[in-house]
Design goal:
Order of helices and strands: HEEEEEEEEE
Mean pLDDT: 76
Strand content: 25-35%
Radius of gyration: 37 Å
Number of strands: 9
Shape: elongated
Number of helices: 1
CATH class of the domain at 96-159: Mainly Beta
CATH architecture of the domain at 96-159: Roll
Strand order of the largest sheet: 6-7-8-9
CATH topology of the domain at 96-159: SH3 type barrels
């Protein structure tokens, strides 16, 4: 009985494929070709057209553009998102305080995200990860409520301030 079912399925597949082949042959070779238009005659429209009114744009009101006295409006230069406070490249340090030294008492640990593969600490409103520099200190360790900073041969511990 299983052999008769598989034979029936094979027969149905062959019949369907034969119909597909006949359809392809008809569409490709037998169907009459469309008549070419004579010179000077318009071809029949096969697509719909839609007229869209033209809209004038006023570039002066477009954000990010500025008027130029010499001609058309110019695009304002884009701000580098990796430089804080919009400092142009080459002016100052990318991170405030990396070029100067500060006492350890001026650093405040404001928060820690210690869960996960790469913990993050918030020191003086700046996010730092393990091994990064904060002024002259290197982040040596980040715990659940404290951060250890190293400077030369000395290490310092910053703890989260309570009641702020």
């Amino acid at each position: 009985m299983a052999d008769s079912k598989s034979e029936q399925i094979k027969l149905v597949i062959v019949v369907v494929m034969a119909f597909v082949l006949v359809g392809i042959v008809y569409m490709r070779f037998v169907r009459p070709k469309s008549q070419a238009t004579a010179p000077g005659e318009a071809a029949p429209a096969s697509t719909a057209s839609l007229e869209v009114p033209e809209v004038a744009l006023d570039m002066r009101e477009t954000p990010g553009w500025r008027n130029s006295p010499q001609g058309p409006p110019e695009r304002e230069p884009l701000r580098d998102i990796f430089v804080p406070n919009g400092l142009p490249k080459g002016q100052g340090s990318a991170f405030p305080g990396t070029e100067e030294s500060v006492p350890i008492d001026s650093l405040e640990l404001r928060g820690v995200v210690a869960g996960g593969a790469r913990p993050v600490a918030l020191i003086n409103d700046r996010f730092v990860r393990l091994g990064e520099q904060v002024y002259q200190y290197r982040v040596a360790s980040i715990g659940a409520k404290e951060v250890w900073l190293a400077s030369g041969m000395e290490t310092y511990q910053l703890r989260i301030l309570k009641g702020e």
